[in-house]
Write a structure and sequence with these properties.
Oligomer: single chain
Order of helices and strands: HHHHHHHHHHHHHHH
Helix content: 55-70%
């Protein structure tokens, strides 16, 4: 018998994979909802909020302590006075985050994202301040406001109506709102790299024109003292998104130069009011602080802080908004009643801890559920990363 011939195995040829679809330039792609959360921005937010809190507690609240806080906390007063610039860091972060949030969105979705992000914690704060200053004997930051003024404050447009802010930090929210309205111009026509850059050019030119003309209306709209931070923040986002270029770094450098000028002017007004001895923030210290702020954001834009991955920072970043809104009035409740019995350092630590705990509770019980509810009512979707 002859052996049967060995079977030859046929190898099936796998079809070649189809070529990948042509990829649009990165500048034209929409990142909405995609990509990892930039945890380092949450860290930056908390640094900004903590700086403002330290400033209010340890450098600015003479009425609460009965003496100049910079003299009570003399060993750190050269640092705490610079906490006033924490707001400027918030503006810089906002320029980065709002451009990222607006990219690829319709004006309706952008509006829903901003309304749901800003209002729940804010409404709670306005109501809480009304109750605090009308139904308790706390007087620390009580303004000369009637109930109708608190109702107008609920709109967040009180400055447009000539009504005092119910909270001392609310002035910066009006600045933020004006930035949202300005950036809505390019949201309506659709954001891409070219339009974002054109928007920044036009805004920068209008800042110079407003400074030259000293026109009140133009100044109110283009915000020469805050615009450099927003513009630089937008440039940092473009560097993060599409990479560095001479023009993008040029926006950062021009924004930095204008920011130094604005910060020196703002801090000097405090020094002129109470003297350098009681507000020890010399010009060189202000320049160092602004430089550090810009270097931190440059590190974020270039990815040098991408190693920051600690998950709890996401929550820490989220609670900074209620912390910013509430902390000043928490000090009005705690410090006057305990300043004569507790060591000032211990009292400050206690007040900071109470503010952070309250901010966390407001975030968990009011802010986060309120955002979800508003998005459902207004027809929005999940928030963009770091929104």
């Amino acid at each position: 018998m002859t052996a049967a011939p060995a079977r030859t195995r046929r190898r099936r040829r796998r079809p070649a994979p189809p070529p990948p679809p042509a990829r649009a330039p990165i500048a034209e792609q929409s990142p909405v909802g995609g990509g990892p959360r930039l945890v380092e921005l949450d860290l930056m937010r908390f640094i900004a909020a903590f700086a403002v809190m330290a400033f209010h507690y340890m450098a600015a609240s003479r009425s609460l302590w009965g003496d100049y806080p910079t003299e009570i906390f003399a060993s750190v007063n050269r640092v705490t006075t610079l906490g006033i610039l924490g707001v400027e860091l918030f503006f810089l972060i906002s320029g980065f985050v709002i451009l990222m949030s607006a990219w690829g969105r319709s004006i309706g979705k952008f509006a829903v994202s901003r309304i749901s992000r800003l209002y729940p914690a804010y409404w709670f704060t306005v109501v809480a301040l009304y109750v605090l200053y009308n139904y308790t004997d706390v007087t620390g930051f009580k303004g000369n406001l009637y109930p109708v003024h608190y109702l107008i404050n609920l709109s967040m447009f009180q400055e447009a109506f000539g009504v005092l802010h119910a909270g001392g930090v609310f002035w910066s929210l009006w600045v933020e709102l004006k930035f949202y309205f300005l950036i809505s111009i390019i949201v309506i026509i659709g954001i891409n790299l070219r339009r974002a850059m054109a928007f920044m050019w036009v805004w920068l030119v209008l800042v110079v024109v407003a400074e030259y003309l000293e026109n009140d209306l133009l100044t109110e709209i283009v915000m020469p003292r805050q615009a450099p931070y927003f513009i630089a923040g937008m440039a940092f986002y473009l560097i993060h998104r599409v990479g560095p270029s001479v023009t993008r770094w040029g926006f950062v450098l021009v924004g930095y130069a204008f920011a130094v000028y604005a910060a020196l002017e703002r801090v000097q007004s405090r020094v002129d009011a109470i003297g350098l001895k009681r507000f020890p923030a010399p010009p060189e210290a202000v320049i160092v602080a602004i430089t550090l702020i810009f270097l931190l954001m440059a590190a974020v834009a270039l990815g040098w802080l991408s190693w920051v991955k600690w998950a709890p920072l996401t929550t820490v970043g989220a609670l900074t908004y209620p912390l910013y809104l509430l902390h000043q009035n928490v000090s009005a409740v705690i410090i006057p009643g305990l300043r004569d019995t507790l060591n000032p350092w211990l009292l400050t630590a206690l007040t900071m801890a109470a503010s952070i705990v309250l901010a966390y509770l407001v975030y968990k019980l009011i802010d986060r559920p309120g955002q979800r509810l508003l998005r459902r009512i207004l027809g929005g979707r999940r928030p963009v990363r770091n929104e």
